[in-house]
Amino acid sequence: RDIQMISCGADKSIYFRSAQRASDGLHFVRTHHVAEKTTLYDMDIDITQKYVAVACQDRNVRVYNTMNGKQKKCYKGSQGDEGSLLKVHVDPSGTFLATSCSDKSISVIDFYSGECVAKMFGHSEIVTGMKFTYDCRHLITVSGD
After folding, report:
1. pTM for the whole thing?
2. What's the CATH number for 39-143?
3. Fewer CB within 10 Å: C terminus or N terminus of the chain?
4. How far is Cα 144 from Cα 6, in angstroms, rounded to an integer?
């Protein structure tokens, strides 16, 4: 199985790299580069490892194919009109993803349709981490509060 590395950042770029064996070890060679128009804060890969979801400053979630770097979907990751998406996490079943926004909201979104199925407020500070449990029944969130 090929080893792949995908990275994104405030430079608005997503880099897709594949590992290649050489006499002195593994080297990562860039296979695709995506230049976005917005800052990228977080990413997560789905269970099939075919898609990567990216949390964007413009409150959208962009989903890319990991093999060719092409955007497959783009949908609203926060229902509000303020703030930026800070975190994204795909559930272990690959059915839903959760996002946190700098407006302190959390949204649960259908990974395939982009429909928001739940929106929550409750933290008094921004959410800095989140994770679905393995049975996909709970979403654990962490905040500075």
Report:
1. 0.89
2. 2.120.10.30
3. N
4. 28
